Amino acid sequence: MTPEISVIVPLRNESGNVGPLATQIFAALERTGRTFELILVDDESQDDTWAKVKQLCLADARVKGIRHLRNGGQSAALCTGFRASRGPIIATLDGDLQNDPADIPQLVDTLERTGATAVAGYRATRRDTSWKRLQSRIANGVRNRLNGEVIRDTGCSLKAFRTEAVRALPLFTGMHRFLPTLIKMEGGTVTEVPVGHRPRKHGVTKYGMWNRVWRSLQDAFAVRWMQRRALRYRIREEV
Fold this sequence. Notes:
Structural class: alpha/beta
Strand order of the largest sheet: 3-2-1-4-6-5-7
Number of strands: 7
Strand content: 15-25%
Helix content: 40-55%
Order of helices and strands: EHEHEHEHEHEHHEH
Radius of gyration: 17 Å
Largest sheet: 7 strands, mixed
Low-confidence stretches: none
Number of helices: 8
Distance between the termini: 36 Å
């Protein structure tokens, strides 16, 4: 049976989170009565994350595990998930349990109700250190300023998409920070909704000042170039 929703979670060294995260995703979506699949993409973890992913796959046929040969980054993990997805709707979230899976139904319902191409969550209340919040605020401002955007929280991974739309996007390292902008560049529409945020309990963050600000600046210039050079045309008639 083709699932209604494909949930994609990139993982890297999230041994303490992967089991509880899967349990929470199951609970959130089973309450809706929708069919779904869970795609866990292990981006070459150095702990026993992959072993736990395989256990989940053996225990529940709705779980699919994919392991990268080498560390490719979050964008690569999402692209792997996009290609493996079977549902017409994709939901994404981080593997660190800071995103709340209970928000996934709200994102999907908003996507269907509004007819949008994507729904981006924004963390109404951040459960991070003041230093981390400052880095994110700077990076978010840089991306929005350079790309002419008004996205509240470009760093929030909790999003929902129409599958055919994300598969048509240009792929590059750092792409995951610009998915709403890329959707708009292809003629799609994006809606935003507030979502919860929780403190990290297990593992450590994979991002620092270099990832959030300096790489974001480089990638924002690349996206700005693509916005200016994007092909924009419509077919009038075909016989």
